[in-house]
Amino acid sequence: MSGDGRPIGVFDSGMGGLTVLRALAARLPRERFVYLGDTARLPYGTKSAETVQAYALQATRLLVGEGVKMVVVACNTASAVALYVLQEAWDPVPVIGVIEPGARAGVAATKNRRIAVIATEGTVKGGAYARAIRRLMGDAHVVQQPCQVFVALAEEGWAESPATLAAAKHYLEPLFDGADAPDTLVLGCTHFPVLASTIRRTVGAAIALVDSAETTAAAVEEALAANGLALGPEQPVQGPAIRFFATDAPERFARVGAIFLGREIDEGAVELVDLRKA
What we know:
The chain is α/β, with parallel strands linked by helices. It has eleven helices and ten strands. The chain has helices spanning 18-27, 49-65, 76-90, 99-109, 121-126, 128-136, 148-155, 162-172, 196-203, 212-226, 250-261, and strands at 8-12, 33-37, 70-73, 95-97, 114-119, 141-146, 184-187, 208-211, 242-246, 270-272.
């Protein structure tokens, strides 16, 4: 019998990272997961880099304490400013963020070397996606657009509402106007896959949409195999498929989180934790 039966840890500042968990569970149906949403301190995008690093270390300390074999940082802000800190702190536990996989997929998808990135204001200001893309494709032309209203629309579950379509047209039509427009759009926030149908309706069928949740799940699958951590095919699955932790309002986590996970979350299954004591 081979493989590693320990769960995979996933954390985000709130519920958006559940889109990453959803993609992970679909791609790795036999693996178990521990998800932590730091709902008491969201959003991370308005915090300083030093504060986000401190929060991320507390979050991952809890996950590592739960015996995870890998940590997935399902938060763009934390991936941008804290990934290297976490990788150093928890070595040899692999720590994977969402930005590098999204950038790789964007570079692979573009034909005209023009890539648009939509994200929260904090992620856009930090420029992490643009840097990651240009490391992989030095002559890439990257345009970025903050789409902060998308976050609230996603949390309301308004995936295809008139308000969401109006916001999508406001944010996206200027990006794709003209002969030299990008041919690839990176969804640089874990909330945004919930709105993918409206985004696709706005930008048209010819634009390649890169979902950072899907690309991160693929990167995790590769890392599990490379590190000999995948659950063996004959290895029994032990324990619940997913355990949930939240730092505030478990009832809201369960209600809103269901939108992102794509299935109901039992409020009683969400454990309230205090990361300051982690």
